[in-house]
Structure formats: structure tokens, C-alpha cells
Amino acid sequence: MPAQAVRVELGWRTSPGAPDVDASALLLVSGKVRSDADFVFYNQPAHASGAVRHEGKRTAGDGVTDTLDVDLARMEPAIDRVVVVASADGGTFGRVTGLYVRIVDRTNGAEIARFESTDATVETAFILGELYLRQGAWKFRAVGQGYDTGLGGLATDFGISVDEPQRPQAPQQTPPPRQPSPPRPAPASYVTPRTAPAPPPAPPAAQPVRLTKVTLTKETPSVSLAKQGGTSGALRVNLNWEVRKQFKSWGAKLGRAVAMHADLDLDLCALYELTDGSKGVVQALGNAFGSLGGPPFIHLDGDDRTGALTTGENLTVNLDHKDRLRRVLIFVTIYEGARSFADLHATVTLQPQNGAAIDFSLDECTVPSTVCALALITSDGGDLTVQREARYLVPQRGVSPQRTIDAAYGWGMDWTPGRK
Predict the structure, then answer these.
(1) Domain that holds residue 272
(2) What's the structural domain count of the chain?
(3) Residue 25 has pLDDT above 90, yes or no
(4) CA–CA separation, 344 vs 264, rounded Å?
(5) Which of 89, 174, 278, 307 gives a 20 to 30 Å CA spacing to 79?
(6) pLDDT-based confidence at 116, cuts 50/70/90?
(7) Which of 409, 389, 348, 344 is nearest to 370 (CA)?
(8) Does residue 12 or residue 359 have the better pLDDT?
(9) Of 157, 175, 193, which marks where a domain is finished?
(10) Buried/exposed code over 58-68 (b: 16+ C-beta within 10 A; e: otherwise)
(11) 319 occurs within a structural domain
């Protein structure tokens, strides 16, 4: 491995009836994880050391990639192996074409190693390769070991505890209570023993990882964050765009152009209303980037107008202050470079720091829309519900996309012109 900072890119081609594929990594010490925290995947996207991060998927034409970012310089000394895993969601790898894994130098984009898997049949998970430490140097080797037990079976083999659905148990009949016997008088010489102090409470058991993903559809458009385990930490919003016709070589992640066509500028935004009645917007326009530590507890990390940043834009909601949120509307606007969302296909993923990922696809845009409502997050006082909107809006002549989204959802804010 000539580079310390690399991208591990898992790639494949989409086709009708083929399952989705996910990349993940296991950080091992002598062949096992130390705890469930050494598993990096879509529901646990970053290792505590910062050495491995799950960056997410991109689509270009019929090709899809899912990427892991690995910084070997930040790897903890105890870790001697990083296993690179591919898992199929909704089918077997026998129906996946063009599956490969490659290692890319993060600094210059040069390909260091590549392995193509061509002989899969009934497998639902694969160890495609591994980074391993030998004589003080990191190396990579292809593996190609398949599992028919899915990601859960593979992860369990390395010591991960997986949260699996429990089968309901048959009710047991409770025997009738016995009548207590009358107490016997204690002998005169009997001394009542002193009650032993209660043992200290045991520390809470670590929660097993959840491999489930939630997909919102027209038939099931909403989900409770609490029921999926998303009760605290950061909620990251990911927007991935595929251009169908006009710009074949262009793609976008997190609401931002990230490849060939830098003229197309999309903005990921959020309208918010807090429980104290205050309202506002988080967006790049007007430098309204928000804040995580204070109101509105929503933050946009920047505005990538050139498409040069590999991480794109991130919109994050602080769920540790969910009791202060009344409603949040996530939306995206076209700032420049296109007249509508036509010919763009988008996938939205909401990734809680704790809990299952929530994703959905947008319908094809058939109207001259420059603003699209993605998801509405509402609070009932104790829980947040994510509602799939997938709603394209057409602003009237001279009306901004922000005013249009405000009017459609009744935010009732006053707007003034802004710029970047």
C-alpha cells in the first residue's frame, strides 16, 4: 500500500431484478472485533478512531459505487486487519453483474489495486478483500469468500452481536399461587441476620447492531425515528442524484454537483420551526448555515459550488435536542445550471447516528420544477416522524423557490433577496 489515505470503492452495474449492494468494513484484532463498535456500515457509518468511514453511494449511468474512506495513519495500533465486505439487499450475488472492489489513492485518484468477482451464485455476502498489517506495513489482498447467510451471518462470525427480530413465544400458563403458611415462632436463641447490602447494578448491556434498513414508499410513506433506534446523536441527510439524459457523466451526492458538470448547482436546505415558535431556514443562500450546538440544532456544513469536494454537502440534525424541534422540512433547490429537475433521478437517505437508515426514491419530475420537498420531520412531543414528501413544486413567475415551498407548507415567513 503506497498510500496512507485511500478509498475502498465497491462497484457494480444495475439491472432489472438485481439486488442493491452495500459496502462495510470490520476492524479486527487477531481475527475478531473487540466490540460492535469495530463494525463500520450504513447504520454505523464511522469508526470512533476516524480511521474508517462509510461515505455512501453514487450512481453514474448504470454503474453504482459504495465507498469506504480509510486513513491508515489514524488506525489504532491494536488493529491488524480491515475486512472489506459486500452484502446483497433483496437477492443473491448471482444476479449482480460487474461486481468489483478497488483501492484508490485519495490524494491523486490513482488506482492501487482492483479485484473483480465473477463467479457468484447463491451468496448474499462476500469478503471481497482485506487490508492487513505485516512487518509494520499495510498490504491489500483479494479474498472472494462468499456467505449464504447474509451480512448478519458474516458479521456474527467475526464477533458482532446482531439485533435480529425475536419470534413471539407461546404464552405459558401460570400455576395458581400457593397459600402462604403461617409463620412459626422463632426460638428464643434465634438471632435475625442482618440483610446483606444489595449488589451494585450491572452496567447496561451493549446494544447489538441493527442491520435493517427502512424504505419509504407511497404505500408506507412515514416512519418513527424512535422505533428505528434514532433517538439521539446526529441525523445526516444524504441526497444522491443521477442525471438520466443531459449530463451523462455527472452525478451529485448530498445535494451538490460532484463530477463533470460544475455549472449545475443544487442546494440542500431545511425550513424549521422550534417549540418556542421561532422559524427560519438553513441554506447556503445568505450564509444561513445554522448550528448544531444551539438553535436551530440543524447545520449545513458548506456550499460546494464547484463540485470539487469529494464529501459534498452534509445537512445534519441534532437529535439530542429533538424536544426543541416542532417540524423540519428538508428540500432542495436548483440555484443555477438547469431549469427543472426533469431528467434527474434522486435517492434520499436519512442516516441516524444510532438506528436504521431510512431511504426513498423520488418520482420522475414531469413539471418545470426548480424546488422539491424531500421529507417532513414532525414531533409529537416525544418522538420524531419522518414523512416522505417527494413533491416537485413549480414557482410562479417572479416567486423564489423558498417562497414557493413556504406557501405550500404554511410556514408564514417573510423573505428578502439573498445571495451566496
Answers:
(1) 214-409
(2) 2
(3) yes
(4) 12
(5) 89
(6) very high
(7) 344
(8) 12
(9) 157
(10) bbbeeebbbbb
(11) yes
